[in-house]
Amino acid sequence: MLGFLTARQAGLDDPLRLRRAESTRRVLSLQLNHDRDVDRIHGNGINTIDIEVIEGRYMLSGGADGVIVIYDLENYTGKPQYTCKATCTVGRSNQHVHKFSVETVQWYPHDTGMFVSSSFDKTMKVWDTETLRPAEVFQFDGNVYCHHMSPIARKHSLIAVGTKNPKIQLCDLKSGSSIHVLQGHRAEILSVRWSPRYEHILATASADSRVKVWDVRRASGSLFTLDQHNGDKSKASSEAVNTAHNGRVNGLCFTGDGLYLLTTGTDDRMRLWNSATGENTLVNYGKVCNESRKGLKFTLSHGCSPEFVFVPCGSSVAVYALHTGELVTMLRGHYNSVDCCEFHPDYQVRHTHDPLFPSLGPS
Questions:
Q1: I need a surface site. Which of 15, 228, 270, 336 has the fewest CB within 10 A?
Q2: Are 301 and 311 contacting, i.e. CB atoms less than 8 angstroms apart?
Q3: Please, one GO biological process term (predicted)?
Q4: What gap in Å lies between CA 40 and CA 328, rounded to an integer?
Q5: Residues 263/270, Cβ–Cβ less than 8 Å
Q6: DSSP strand E in 9-78: where?
Q7: Do the Cβ atoms of 142 and 165 come closer than 8 Å?
Q8: Can you tell me whether residue 263 is helix, strand or coil?
Q9: By C-alpha distance, which of 228, 221, 330 is closest to 269?
Q10: β-sheet with 249-254: strand ranges across
């Protein structure tokens, strides 16, 4: 580290090189922080969390009890021991609360005045953070498994929504209506993700074992379907042609630069794909525990070299090197199954939640 600092001071190194090295060091030294806790508000398991990117200060959580909580992650006390407080809650007494399990929560990417939640009550709600009232409610025919807003879009305000119906719904925030459907899957949609590189590119994962990549400006179907065998039909049975996994595909995540796409399936495999060509890079992560009957909420690091993947695995979180597939470590500390995890890009803090023990794991 002293070598990096000396080279930076002398102007020999790019400052990003030092930042990447320090970020990587912190990830490799992650451990449970016994001095920091989170207010326990939810009565049941926590299915989903999201940290806003404007300040990196506020965290949303959505639970199996239908409750949504906003936490303040900042510690202004000056003391090492600290409990992150809930600043506001959409609780059971709120007339607008979801009737059933909240499956996905997401901050509006451009400010903290709005967030979106979706639920097994067949609705997606767009909330005003100030009033905690829904500004818009979208109704669907089946349970909503997932939704996602583009982190970079300037030319559209679409929310991609995955439901029990095999058609992907595209809902427009401006008009307040579902304006388009994407057809091609044969079973429920378990995960959707917009590219962080190209605002019109969308990836979708389904229980039909397939992952499709779409340009939503095109009306002629998906750009391509990911094939785990890279087109080699001699390696695939007739049922496995053009499938990403040998089971339900329940997790998607683009790398920060959008060049690669990670997928997880109930075949206990994780695969890394070239997002431009759809090629399976054949990185071997070994057996990746996947017991989720719905979407698997995993995440990636940002600004490290190499980058890392954090995957809920029973009561632990498995950490893999993105491009080599090496299992780097297992983060332990929960008493029950970990349902989701999120990486904090500024402070290298990884937030995970199980039904009984919310915790923070900082470097």
A1: 15
A2: no
A3: protein polyubiquitination
A4: 30
A5: yes
A6: 36-38, 46-51, 58-63, 68-72
A7: yes
A8: strand
A9: 228
A10: 249-254, 260-265, 269-274
The radius of gyration of the chain from alpha carbons, rounded to an integer in Å, stands at 20
Q: Taking 90 as the threshold, does the pLDDT of residue 288 lie above it? A: yes
Hey, where are the domains in the chain?
16-362
Q: Output the CA torsion sign for 331, 333, 338, 343.
A: negative
pLDDT of residue 363: 33
Q: How far apart are CA 100 and CA 9, in angstroms?
A: 55
CB contact at 8 A, 260 and 272? yes
Q: Which residue in the block uniquely carries the two structure tokens 């890279």?
A: 230
- The structure tokens listed for 319 are 């950490």
Taking the C-alpha atoms of residue 115 and residue 172, their distance in angstroms, rounded to an integer, is 14
Strand partners, 212: 204, 225
CA distance linking residue 140 with residue 128, whole number of Å:
21
The total of other beta-carbon atoms located within 10 Å of residue 34's CB is: 11
Is-contact 317 294, C-beta < 8 A?
no
Q: By mean pLDDT, which of 15-24, 191-200, 310-319 is the weakest?
A: 15-24
**What's the rounded Cα separation, in Å, for the pair 216 and 38?**
39
Tokens encoding 192: 């959707």
CB 332 within 8 A of CB 32: yes
Please give the structure tokens belonging to residue 138: 């979208």
Residue holding tokens 């508000």? 41
Which fold is adopted by the domain 16-362?
A: Methylamine Dehydrogenase; Chain H (2.130.10)
Q: What percent of the chain is predicted at pLDDT more than 70?
A: 90
> Cα separation of 179 and 194, whole Å?
17
Sequence-distant (6+) residues with CB within 8 A of 115 are: 50, 60, 105, 106, 107, 108, 126, 127, 129
Per-residue pLDDT tens over the stretch 323-341? 999 999 999 988 889 999 9
